[in-house]
Amino acid sequence: MKVLGVLGGMGPAATVAFLARLQALTPATCDEDHIRVLMDMNPQVPNRHRDEPGAKRVLGEMAARLREAGADVLAMPCNTAHAHAEAIRASGLPFIDMVAETAAEAARGAAKRIGVLATPGGDALYAAALEALGVEPVRLDTAGRRTFLEAVFQVKAGDVGAGPQGLMRGLAAGLAEGGAEVVIGGCTEVPLLIGAGDVAVPLVDSAEVLAAACVRICRADIATDADARQG
To answer: What is the pTM of this model?
Structure first.
């Protein structure tokens, strides 16, 4: 079983929720069936919007430390920070790309227009990923992006109540009304506010997609061994 290194803390609540998904999605009958996780919970990563060079440097340093600690593969439950994926890959370890995995999952059906709930940085990453798959992204307008950030900042301040929930539901509804056949929760704060029942179309949770990919990749050797025994 591969050791998973997680670059976390962006934000802390979203990282903890991701770890809970990782545990819940692992097919386990005892402690030993679960994935070993090395975590760098670092809320002091420089702001991904205002200090991109600083964020790039710190993320690269985190990846290198996780490698030295014994990680075999890396993951990061922050969509916006995937703009610095190359700095993380410079560690020499495989990096599970949350944006690519989520875009592929959302496009797996017949949807041709997919909405994106994300920060401005995450929105740009998802637009490029979806367009590469031949899918049209349905994006928030300028006012919607401001509202989205308002909701996310409320979560980061500890408020996951009716106020930010209502803001996020309204944004999701606007994307569906704008023609989105599927909506991507392209920020790990999104599932802390809304779930599938809050959106009129299917909601693809990027944190859950990443957790499932981590389980699949880190336990791949176990699945191969089981198949060999059955064969």
So the answer is: 0.93
Residue owning tokens 């790990």: 188
Catalytic center residues: 78, 187
Tokens 């308002």 identify what position?
A: 150
Each residue's pLDDT tens digit in the chain (231 positions)?
999 999 999 999 999 999 999 999 999 999 999 999 999 999 999 988 889 999 999 999 999 999 999 999 999 999 999 999 999 999 999 999 999 999 999 999 889 999 999 999 999 999 999 999 999 999 999 999 999 999 999 999 999 999 999 999 999 999 999 999 999 999 999 999 999 999 999 999 999 999 999 999 999 987 544 444 444
Which are the contacts of 83, defined by CB distance < 8 A and separation ≥ 6? 48, 52, 121, 124, 125
Tokens of 27: 């097919």
Beta strands per DSSP E along the chain: 4-8, 37-41, 73-75, 113-117, 136-138, 182-185, 203-205
- Of the candidates 168, 170, 216, which has an alpha carbon nearest to the alpha carbon of residue 194? 168
**199 — alpha (psi -120 to 50), left (phi > 0) or beta?**
beta
CB atoms within 10 A of CB 40: 22
- End-to-end distance of the chain based on CA atoms, in angstroms? 20
The single-letter DSSP state of residue 187 is S
Strands 182-185 and 113-117: parallel
Residue 121, classed as helix, strand or coil, is: helix
Q: Which of 98, 97, 139, 101 is nearest to 119 (CA)?
A: 139
